[in-house]
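Checklist before submission:
- one chain only
- standard amino acids only
- sequence pasted in full

Submission:
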Amino acid sequence: MSQIIGFIEEIMAIQFVDIIIAIGIILFFRIFSSSFSYIIIRMFKIKDNKAKKIKQSAFYSPLKVFFIILGFYLAIVFLKKPLDISNEVMIIAYRAFIIITTIAFAKGLATSFTPKSSLYKKIKEKTNSNVEDSMFDFALKVIRFIIYIIAGFIIISVLGINLNGLVAGLGLGGVIITLAAQDTAKNLFGGLVVFLDKPFVVGDWIQMDNFEGTVEDITFRSTRVRTFENSIANIPNSIIANASIINWSKMEKRRYKTNLCIELNTPLEKLETFKNKVEDMLQSREAIYDDSIIVKFDNITDNGLNVLICSYTGSVDYNSYLSEREDINYKIMKILQEENIELAYDTKTVYMKN
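Returned file contents:
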């Protein structure tokens, strides 16, 4: 009896030692995961010696996760024989290891295709600087989407799901999926149209139908616009693809236009002097394009003599345009006062018959 008890205690001691070793393997990879990740990234970033930038790499965190999970997996492999772990459990452990590793590296690869990544900056520097950031952002979103789709297929394959059967099942339900995804497909196509035609980019001031504001983001499904009421409008790309869009940010110049109705009894000499002074005033302004100036006595109405004043200004910003317009109006009113010219009012004469 004592021999049997001694044998059991010996087996338990051996298993206890194996468990301690397995825990040691887990702790080893957990403690040195940062160092291993740093060394691997340092090998590929020979020119970059700064530890901070290396740790900010898109693959630094995924590598840490990989080594931590690797420690757990190796510990389970080590304990397989001492603890007589079944093959089914080992298969589950292996699949979990592959799935978590796939997700981690897919996230790292997707993160490397973001506007904040060093890869984005390098590509941006080597390409045409005139290409809008929104085009790059849209392309990066497509790449990240493809990366996650590939990772998803890898995970499905690791789980042992038959992809042929899945595809066949999708074929049988294709009609239902197509009907349900019509709006999504339209929005994706609309996003592609926005990307290729470039009617606007992020930061532009646009106007369409009932929406007007500044474009903040362009995604697969919709375009986010911040209105002048400081609210957010998410407009489906399918609507944008079929809408008439005014891009106010593309203006190279703004038009100043006003019609002045002068009293009918104003002497023509004064009218001519007024026109010349207004034209000289506009030509003296730096923001006004000289070849666009129009000051014409263009119509005679029941109320008075109509003078059309029109020109284009380089003050594209709305605030500066209003300031320019205000200053022109002040100067026109001053000229009217100098020439003692009165503006006509809409009047009617009524005759009363006794």
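Reviewer check: Residues 1-12 have pLDDT under 50 and may be disordered.
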